[in-house]
Structure formats: structure tokens, C-alpha cells
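Ticket #4471: complex job returned nothing on first submit. Input attached below:
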Amino acid sequence: MTDLSPSRLALVPFISVADMMRIVNAAGIPETIAAIADRIETDFRRWPDFDKTARIPSHSDDGVIELMPTSDGEFYGFKYVNGHPANMARGFQTVTAFGVLARVDNGYPVLISEMTVLTALRTAAMSVAAARHLAPKDARVMAVIGNGAQCEFQSLGFHHVLGIEEVRLYDVDRKATEKAARNLAGTGLRVVSCSSAEEAITGAQIVTTCTADKRYATILTDNMVGAGVHVNAIGGDSPGKTELHRDILMRSDIFVEYPPQTWIEGEIQQLDPDHPVTELWRVFRGDVPGRTGRDQITLFDSVGFATEDFSALRHIHEAALETGFYTDLDMVADPDDPRDLFGMLRRASDA
Amino acid sequence: MTDLSPSRLALVPFISVADMMRIVNAAGIPETIAAIADRIETDFRRWPDFDKTARIPSHSDDGVIELMPTSDGEFYGFKYVNGHPANMARGFQTVTAFGVLARVDNGYPVLISEMTVLTALRTAAMSVAAARHLAPKDARVMAVIGNGAQCEFQSLGFHHVLGIEEVRLYDVDRKATEKAARNLAGTGLRVVSCSSAEEAITGAQIVTTCTADKRYATILTDNMVGAGVHVNAIGGDSPGKTELHRDILMRSDIFVEYPPQTWIEGEIQQLDPDHPVTELWRVFRGDVPGRTGRDQITLFDSVGFATEDFSALRHIHEAALETGFYTDLDMVADPDDPRDLFGMLRRASDA
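Support reply: We reran it on our side without changes. The output follows.
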């Protein structure tokens, strides 16, 4: 009775940043992106199974803190994520995240995980999953505009899964491009550092935009996007933050994750609310086509949705249990008699 | 560069169940309830400072999982809590919880804490804070109907803060009453075990109801509540779950935490939506009176609100840092260059 060691029910596996890196490096970074892309696509195909809600934000002058919950009826998951554009100048990460998985049948958490690294992987995985259906089949060259934290994950994911051979990098900050080029050396990708967005998109069949400015920006102007290109727009992901000129949207077939959220956060916040968009889960199921012609401009207006984090957490949960790269947290009070929380507390004092 | 030990920014203090029990036992259970009651009342007095939202539920056949976020502009906090009535029969806790505090200015989490024990304490603390303004000043006898996990915390809180000398216990399950009576022995309270709710309320100036049935129940009928009594109704806290006969509500002055939530979850879900209720933060501020007369029946329709968890987390965060009863979790990825998440991951592999 006075044994203070937690019962098995009290313990929740925890994936630290160090353990996340061990799990991912053990499997390989591109391999992990590919595995999460498969999991995302499988979960999107059973879209109606998920309890979907737009993220719950708490805004302040400095940024936003959000909770992103979802459930498939068997597991419940949520992500905590912040977005603070001024953080980088103060030596903090712009975005940090962690997540939780729980069992729906009894409500007990079964995983707490860092998600800053995992979110970077799942964002690339979602792009890859979408591009499998939207990019030209013979695409070998991708431009990446914005060479911050997401750039290398996108590049490696597209290299590994879609066979992209060349990435053309551009960032307003030359140092960011140098960092990305250095990191991508030796990965098998041909890396071309460019001095303008126009130069970067030359010859690219896929254009990925992943800049970080929290304001209306125009990273791509209308004349920069030619026929047959797939635009993978990552950075426009909150109210007031867009990357593409409206005219590009007007010429594109637009594909989105969850329309109620994308209308608030995505590039399409620039459009009239009756503008047609296609939900990716319908494409993944084969109910509606993805790319239909050589000259079509396809646009994935990516904002990131809770089910993608759920898919990533499910994958990493299994990988953690397989590899043993996790620790147990004594997080769920588990008295011998569930009604006797007080007695448990008193006995801990006596012990 | 290849140092894998996490930076100071990466570390988030974690209060395990064992550490929570150490913190609470070091200060004393009733003393902790009193301290949280003071913190709740102070925070309620600055009610307009808080970002308030009704809890975000995910319902299933077995129960509910909820997120309860709030912010005061300096700190952001949320609680994860489940409610699964069938859990007890399966050897699990009906309610488990954990919570997080974060800094609003940079979005970094600063605390993860178990909250199953802490929620029991803050629920009693909220009842005590309300009763300070609503119960008869000379109240010395309290009935507690429902002798589950919350019973002893309520009893001790009211003993310590309001000077209650006698608790009269009743539960449909005799074993629950025996458990509570055993736990309360030697605390200075006179404990009377009763064989009916009618017997329990005899001579009581305060009636606390904290039963657990997830259905419309009538723990108190109209004739059981006499003039001058304060009813502290804890158990009616979700749609379809009430404890009091509607006629009692009609004769009472009703005090609530956050009306948009209480109308959905509280006893007042039985009333017409234009029925008058008083917000407790206005009472705590002195803007409107609490108890105004000897014969008045006051009712605290308690459902539990996010700011109360916030207040409890703020108290326990300070207590953890003071006592050292916590461990650090490596939870926030913190690369030397915030844009170089990929490089951090690669270097971890090289190390």
C-alpha cells in the first residue's frame, strides 16, 4: 500500500527530442518522410472516420498558440504548436510543438512526443503525398523558395519519393541558402543556389514556396508560373500570411486539406468564398482526379491539418515502441481504488 | 556541435504524480486547497484579462476527452481531461488529467504537470472560494452526498477555510462512505456516516453533492433543501448529467463560473435560457453581493472552468520550482540556428 512506485497504468511513453532524432536517424530521414506520407494518405482515404475541427488558436501581439485535436474513434490526438515570428531574432524557435495520443475507449494518454522535428517531417510528407497525385509524372527539377527549417525536408522528401534530381534554392537571406546547400550536400540531389526567385524557377516542374514572413507577401508573381507546373505552397498558413499573387490562384486548380481551415489560413483567403477547390482526400481515394493534363497548373495550398499530425504521431508511436527510444512518464494517478485518490495522497505522505 | 545534451531552452519542468504528491504533502492538503482557493479568487477578480472559451470536447460512446485552454496574456495554459464513466468497473480512473503552462510572449511551454490529483484539489478550492461568499457565516455542519474521489478534498477544504466542524456523509455505495470516513479520521473533523441523503442533510447549513452518475439524477429533491442553506453542486457537470430537482433551482439564487459553459453542462441546463444567474467573478470583485439574507438558498452550480486549472497550475508551478520536486523533459528542439533543424538532426546521427 505504501509502495510509491507508479503502477503500469500510470506510465505514459515520452519521446524526447533526443529520442525523436534517434528514431528518425535509425530509419533514415527520407525513409521516415516516405513512411509518414504513406500513413497520411491511408488516413486521408478514411477521411469520414475522423472527428475534424479547425485548430483552436490563442492570439497575442507576439504570436499564436494553437491546439489541433482530432480522433479516428480508436485514438485521439492533439498537437500544441506556437508560431512567434519575432522569436528567431531573440534566439528562440519560431515554431515549437509537442503532441499527445490517447485511447478513445478509456481516455488514457498513451504517448507524449516532441513534435518540432516531427512536424517538419510530416509537413514534407504531406507535400509529397499531394505531389504524387498533382505533380507532372516526369518532374525532375524543383525550385524551393524560402530556405529555412522546412527546405531540406521538402527537398529530400521529393528526391526520395518523387525522383526529383535537382533542387534550385533561393532565399532573401543568402545565409539560409548556404545552410540548406551545405546540409543537402552528399544526399544525391543536385543543388543549385540561385540569386533570385526568377532564376530558381527556371526549368522547374515543381515550385515549393516555404517562406516565413507573417504578412501578405508575393513570393511568386503571375508571370513566374508557367503551364504544367505544380505549386507546393507551404508558407501561407495563417490569416494575413500568403505567398502567391492572386492571379496565380485564378489560373490554377487548387487542392486543399480541410476547406474550413484553408479558407481562413491558406492562399485562398485571397479568393471569393465560392471559388472551387478540391479536397485532397477525394483525390487520394480516387473519387476525383488529381492532375489531368500536361498544361494544367496545380496548386497544393498547404496549411497543415490535425489528421496529418495524428498520422505522424501514430507512425512515431509504433517506431518508438519498436526501437525502445522513449522513456516512461509517471503521469496518470492510479490509486488501487479509483475512488480513493485522497488515500493515495495520504499514504504517499506516510511512506 | 555534436553535443547531444539538450540546451537549457529545450527543457520543460515536469511534475509527475509522485512529485505532485510530494509537493502537496510538503505544504499540507488543506493548506494547498486554501492556497489554490486564494489564487482562484485573485484570478477571478481580473476575469476580463482572461481569454475564455468553452472546453473543446471529443465525444465517443465510452466517454469524452476535452481540452480546456485559457490565457491571461502572460501565461497560456490548458488541461487535457477525460471522463469515462465505465472506467471504474474496468479498473481505470473515470477522470485523468494533465496540464501545460506556456509563456505567451514566445510560446514555449514552461510546465507539464499531472492534473488528476491537482484537479481534485482545485475543484475543492473553487467550492471553498465560492462558499466564502455564499454560505451562512455561522455554518458548522456540511452534508456530503456522494463519497467518491472528491469527498475528502471538499470536507477538508471546508474544515480548514470555512470552519466546518462536522461532515455528514452519504453514498448509495456504503463502501465509499466507509472509505471517506476512514480517510477523514484524525483530521479534526467530526464525521457522521449516514444511511440516507435525508439523514445526511439534517442540520447541515451546507450541502455538497458530488456524485458521479452520467445521467439525469435527482440526488436532492425539493423538500430536502430548507431556507438558509448553501448548495455546493459539484457532480452535475456535463450535458445530461444533473443532480438536483428543478424545483430547487427555482427557489435558489444561482451562482456560476462561466455562463456559456454552465448552460451546457451545469444544473441550469434544466432551466429556461433567460433564467437569471450570477457570475462569481462579479461577486469576488464585490460588484454584486453573494449571500444577502439568512433565509436565502444559494446554489453554486459548479462545472469547473479553464481559469481554475490555470490558477492551480500557476500555484503548483511556483511550488515545484521552490521545492525542487520536478524533473526536466527534453521537449523543445533547440538547434543552434533556429532555421537549421535539419542540421541538428543530421549531426545527432553523426554523433
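Residues 127-304 of chain B form a domain with the Rossmann fold fold (CATH 3.40.50.720). Closing as resolved unless it happens again.
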